[in-house]
Amino acid sequence: MGRSRQRQLISVYLVAIIVVTLGLLISAVVSFDQQRRTIRELSVSNLMLTGERVAFDLERRVWQLAEDCLRAPELAQSLAGLVGGSVGKGTTTLGPEADVLRPRCPIAGQFFLMHDNRL
Question: Is the pLDDT of residue 76 over 60?
Fold first, then answer.
């Protein structure tokens, strides 16, 4: 009788160990899956933030180039001549002044002048 009782206790002990081990294994698998999903979400978020940072840096650089170019004395003289009479008579360009400005201000080719609601 003692031996069967001993076998029964060993069986209960082994079943308890197996149940606890399976519970820990399932918990580990669920945890790894959650970590994988979290890493994927963080990667997507970081990629979007990096794209926004690049766009911000590009926009800031364009603004800086435009400000530097608009402060150029050559452009001020050209614009004064355009406002003096040729604006409003059709499409105007900077003409030869653009060739002087282009090496110094590559963004000058993107400028538009508005006068009396006309481009």
Answer: yes
